[in-house]
């Protein structure tokens, strides 16, 4: 079998988080007895190109493309964020944020303004946001916003657009948002949440490479060991992680339907 690679670009929210994820993945691979490389794949390189690779052995993937792939990658594990709002479950939310000094107090206050989004096919930055907003549309108010601005790529792009006044509201992956607030509080404090979507399955760690017999179990045992290891405790605390869950692939089935059912384009919201 060709050597696989590992990557956690999705939640490398800050330089410290990036370094910690790389250290965690190296520790897990060593513990699992796998001589795989932990690769860099930094923004603005498109995540879709990373996920299309066939040599991923342990990589974070958005739950939406995971649910849409046929055949699906092997689901290895899912993070358990430590903040209380996650309820010790492998879930996350989309936080809808505004500029900290804006007059908006509720999501409805932003209607009539400019909505931003990362990518239309992103779960947290696009689909979940559109689904959440859909409930507020009525025959009397078929459009909530006068304009939409897309291709903001990631959470930092959303925050920058808010600070620059290009948008009035935008989406942040909640776990990424929490990591930003933990590591770069001044940057994160430039925005504040006015709403959050319901919980959805958090992006999992997956393998697109064919795993040899025993490798999946070795990876899962190593991830579980990381949560119990005293030497890894400070790192896990910095990553706001309680550990890892091992959900069933079926837990992600609903995400494909979320995007497949008729969904208004942002230009229509």
Strand order in the largest sheet: 2-1-3-12-4-13
Radius of gyration: 19 Å
**Terminus-to-terminus distance:** 48 Å
The helix/strand class is: alpha/beta
Order of helices and strands: EHEHEHEEEEHEHEHHEEEHHEH
Q: Which consecutive residue ranges, at least 5 long each, have pLDDT under 50? A: none
Proportion of β residues? 15-25%
Counting DSSP H or I runs of 4 or more residues, the number of helices is 10
How confident is the prediction overall: mean pLDDT?
Answer: 95
Quaternary state, please? single chain
Describe the structure.
With 269 residues, the chain is α/β, with parallel strands linked by helices. The protein has two domains: 5-82 and 202-257, Periplasmic binding protein-like II (D-Maltodextrin-Binding Protein, domain 2); 91-200, D-Maltodextrin-Binding Protein, domain 2, CATH 3.40.190.10. The protein is 34% helix and 19% strand. The chain contains ten helices and 13 strands. The protein has helices at 15-32, 47-51, 63-68, 123-134, 155-163, 174-183, 185-188, 215-228, 233-238, 253-260, and strands spanning 5-7, 37-38, 56-60, 74-81, 91-92, 94-99, 114-116, 147-149, 170-173, 191-196, 200-201, 205-207, 241-245. The chain has a six-stranded mixed beta sheet with strand order 2-1-3-12-4-13. α1 (15-32) crosses α8 (215-228). The protein is globular. The termini are far apart.
């Amino acid at each position: 079998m060709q050597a696989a690679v590992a990557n956690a670009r999705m939640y490398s929210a800050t330089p410290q988080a990036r370094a910690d994820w790389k250290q965690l993945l190296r520790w897990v691979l060593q513990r699992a007895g796998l001589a795989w490389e932990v690769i860099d794949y930094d923004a603005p390189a498109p995540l879709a190109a990373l996920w299309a690779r066939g040599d991923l052995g342990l990589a974070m993937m958005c739950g939406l493309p995971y649910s849409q792939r046929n055949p699906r990658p092997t689901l290895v594990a899912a993070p358990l964020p430590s903040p209380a709002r996650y309820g010790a479950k492998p879930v996350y939310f989309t936080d809808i944020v505004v500029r900290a000094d804006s007059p908006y107090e509720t999501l409805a206050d932003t209607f009539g303004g400019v909505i931003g989004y990362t990518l239309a096919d992103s779960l947290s930055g696009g689909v979940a946001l559109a689904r959440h907003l859909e409930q507020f549309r009525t025959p009397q108010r078929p459009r909530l916003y006068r304009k939409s601005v897309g291709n903001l790529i990631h959470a930092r792009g959303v925050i920058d657009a808010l600070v620059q006044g290009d948008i009035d509201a935008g989406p942040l992956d909640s776990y990424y948002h929490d990591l930003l607030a933990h590591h770069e509080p001044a940057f994160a404090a430039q925005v504040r949440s006015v709403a959050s979507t319901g919980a959805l399955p958090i992006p999992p760690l997956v393998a697109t490479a064919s795993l040899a017999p025993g490798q999946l179990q070795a990876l899962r045992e190593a991830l579980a060991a990381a949560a119990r290891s005293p030497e890894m405790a400070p790192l896990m605390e910095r990553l706001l992680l309680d550990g890892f869950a091992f959900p069933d692939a079926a837990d992600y089935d609903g995400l494909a339907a979320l995007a497949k059912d008729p969904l208004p384009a942002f230009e229509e919201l």
